[in-house]
Specification:
The complex is a heterodimer of chains A (572) and B (165). Chain A has 572 residues and is α+β, with helices and mostly antiparallel strands. Chain A is 52% helix and 20% strand. In chain B, 45% of the residues are buried. Classes of the chains: A alpha+beta (572), B alpha/beta (165).
Chain lengths: 572, 165
């Protein structure tokens, strides 16, 4: 409302030229400038834009003048960033994205460098002769290796500084370097004081004389006396004489700053906490210059590690490659079907199906450089209908003679060549036993007539006669030879019957006599004939070809020896 | 933090070290007593709400071969004079040591500890002796390091006396 009135007032003033002149004289501003100021006052947005140009500069000036400290601004910015992250973390992530990559790279590179340096230092400290010697010394002296290493790293190092009240031997203040652990400072201080008194008493030295150095192995205790207090510095190594000056200045500074405290001292050491800054000046050290060495150990180890890792990786890859070649090789073979290939407990495992006729997988495994320690083959038996397997199976079952070829195609077993009639007959009966074969093709198979003439066979049979003892059919060596010849001829009769569809029979004649007891003699003779038939049957002659017969000498024109057996071939 | 030096004096084998051992945990071995004549132990106490660190100087007992070094008493805020109740001569030594100590320490508080009260039946020091010591205005406490009798009280009492001085 007030703004509107003011605006109207401006309009009226605009009309009035004199009033404008008067205003310019009074304010020093013309109409445009006043309007701009009015706009800024009435429009917060425009005002914000206007002052935004100066705001950063103003803040910087305020900080420079000390009117605002960075510490005061920090919580504000932290809060703003925290709110922003809580509200929308993506936004800050987008802002940081361009710097994050290089920052991470730099950090990783730094860490890697540190790691290599540390690795090299560790290896060097672990393996170099100098450090091995140091380890040995540490063991001999009973010091820790770290302590030994540290002592070797410095020309000298003030490890602890004690401010001790001269009269009472009480510890007023104690400073120690960051690497040394705190010790029982009060007792150490008192003991140092006691040692000082002891030395003084023992050697009757003058009142102004005091103990100023104690040597203990590589440790030096430097003592700097003041009127009321002493400074004792525990130093490792060989300190320079300048350290004495520093200690002198420190004890002087302590006395200068604690005159009153010393005069009123009643055991309260709180006031001497302020003397710490003077004592700290005495905690000096000088590091030995270390020659920058090439990271030989790190490189050697890296090469070694890479070499070993490379070897194992190569071996692993090569083994895997060899295994895969083996699996492919096996899978290509007929009669084998792979169902699974994996690795279990560091051992290759191959699962599959295998026909009994398929090639031996164990020998294949060995030929590829594997054995049971690194590979296991688990095959379930199955019957393959692959061509090669069916043919192998047929050969195993049918046992074809030489000159016969067997092949298989689309369920048909094709047999070609030349074979005797007996085998061909057996083939025609047995081919159905071959799994996978539905049909037999013998169009290209010719019968080979290799049977001898029937009369020759009959002669070969009938020429034999065997004589036995009472109640016995045992043969001697000569008779056994004759028996084999008889057997061969008897088998040929069987074959002759098959090929020629005839029914030739061999009568096994057992000779006896009617004398004394005809019936008993007949019975014994028949038993003998049957026992002989059994022998022939055991030798491979079909018993259906044989017929037992008893012949009495009394019925013959020419008597035959009793207890003998002869043979006659007849067609039934 | 208040620190006070207390010295233990007395004849040889009166039980000074045993009394200190009853009171503190030591880090130094007793060999220091035989080498430089003193062993130092530390004990932190809270007396009347104040943290006090006591540095106990256990001085080698005086005998025919070794005298107590007066310098070890310098700076003491208080001291114990330890007497063995079973040996009368240790009381005589104590009286001499007190004379020396008061000269060196400029009249700081002290307490006479008549130790080995667990062997009371064997004591050569009788009540009259004790009474005569008390008549000198000296504080006397009967202690037993073996039975841990009145040891802590003695140290606390001397500390209070030192703080109140």
């Amino acid at each position: 409302m007030e703004g509107d009135q003011r605006s109207q007032g401006f309009e009226q003033m605009h009309d009035g030229g004199k009033l404008n002149e008067l205003r310019k004289i009074l304010t020093g501003l013309d109409k445009e400038e006043l309007e701009r100021l009015h706009r800024l006052m009435s429009d917060p947005h425009e005002f914000a834009i206007e002052i935004s140009e100066f705001l950063p500069f103003s803040i910087r000036k305020l900080i420079e003048n000390g009117e605002i400290s960075k510490e005061e601004l920090l919580p504000f910015f932290e809060e703003v960033i925290q709110t922003s992250i809580q509200k929308n973390p993506q936004k800050l992530a987008d802002i940081l994205f361009p710097v994050m990559g290089p920052a991470i790279r730099k950090a990783v590179a730094e860490d890697l460098k540190k790691l290599i340096d540390s690795l090299n230092q560790t290896l060097e400290s672990g393996l170099s002769p100098r450090h091995l010697k140091m380890r040995l010394s540490a063991r001999v002296t009973g010091k820790s290796y770290a302590e030994m290493l540290l002592s070797q790293a410095y020309v000298y190092q003030v490890k602890q500084v004690f401010l001790i009240h001269r009269n009472t031997g009480l510890l007023l203040h104690h400073e120690t370097d960051s690497e040394t652990g705190a010790c029982a400072g009060d007792m150490v201080a008192s003991m140092l004081s006691a040692i000082g008194d002891f030395v003084k008493d023992s050697f009757q030295s003058g009142t102004n004389d005091a103990l100023d150095t104690i040597h203990v192995g590589e440790l030096n205790i430097w003592i700097e006396q003041g009127p009321h207090a002493v400074i004792a510095a525990i130093v490792e190594g060989n300190p320079p004489h300048e350290l004495r000056t520093v200690m002198k200045e420190a004890i002087e500074a302590v006395h200068f700053n604690h005159v009153y405290d010393f005069e009123k001292f009643n055991g309260d050491v709180s006031a001497f906490a302020l003397s710490g800054k003077f004592l700290q000046r005495c905690l000096q050290k000088q590091k030995k210059e270390q020659q920058k060495s090439n990271p030989v150990f790190a490189i050697a180890l890296l090469v070694l590690v890479l070499g070993v890792a490379g070897f194992f990786i190569y071996r692993n890859l090569e083994t895997r490659h060899r295994w895969n070649k083996f699996v492919t090789h096996v899978d290509e073979k007929q009669g084998i079907h792979i169902t699974g290939n994996n690795m279990s407990g560091g051992v290759f495992v191959l699962n599959g199906l295998r026909d009994a006729e398929a090639l031996n997988t164990d020998s294949m495994l060995h030929s590829f450089g594997f054995d049971s320690s690194n590979a296991r083959l688990i095959f379930t038996p199955f019957i393959s209908l692959e061509q090669e397997m069916v043919v192998k199976r047929a050969i195993r079952l049918l046992e074809p003679p030489q000159g016969v070829l067997i092949s298989f195609k689309e369920g048909v077993l094709i047999v070609s060549g030349e074979a005797d009639a007996v085998w061909i007959n057996r083939l025609k009966l047995d081919y159905v036993r071959v799994v996978g074969v539905n049909k037999l093709d013998v169009a290209a198979l010719t019968i080979m007539n290799n049977l001898p003439d029937l009369n020759m066979i009959i002669q070969a049979i009938e020429k034999h006669r065997f004589s036995f003892d009472i109640n016995d059919v045992e043969m001697d060596a000569v008779q056994k030879k004759k028996f084999d010849s008889l057997t061969m001829a008897a088998v040929q009769i069987g074959n002759f019957n098959i090929v020629n569809h005839r029914n030739m029979l061999i009568h096994v004649r057992s000779y006896s006599s009617k004398a004394v007891n005809k019936q008993a003699n007949e019975k014994v003779a028949l038993e003998r004939a049957r026992a002989f038939i059994k022998l022939l049957g055991q030798a491979g002659v079909s018993e259906s070809l044989l017929k037992a017969e008893v012949v009495f000498n009394e019925d013959l024109p020419v008597p035959q020896p009793v207890r003998s057996v002869s043979f006659n071939v007849f067609e039934e | 933090m208040i620190k006070k030096k207390i010295t233990m004096v007395g004849a040889f084998a009166v039980g000074k070290t045993s009394l200190v051992q009853r009171f503190v945990n030591s880090i130094y071995s007793e060999k220091y007593q035989t080498t430089i004549g003193v062993k130092i132990d530390q004990k932190n106490l809270v007396i009347d709400g104040k943290d006090v660190t006591l540095l106990l100087w256990d001085i080698h007992g005086e005998d025919d071969f070794m005298k107590v070094k007066p310098t070890y008493l310098i700076g003491s805020s208080g001291y114990f004079i330890v007497v063995d109740g079973t040996r009368y001569e240790t009381l005589q030594t104590a009286l001499q040591l007190q004379e020396m100590a008061s000269t060196v320490t400029k009249d700081v508080p002290f307490i006479v500890l008549i130790n080995k009260s667990d062997l009371r039946q064997d004591w050569e020091i009788n009540n009259d002796d004790i009474e005569s010591i008390r008549k000198r205005g000296w504080q006397v406490i009967l202690t037993s390091a073996r039975d841990n009798f009145a040891v802590e009280d003695a140290f606390e009492q001397l500390t209070r006396m030192m703080l109140n001085q």
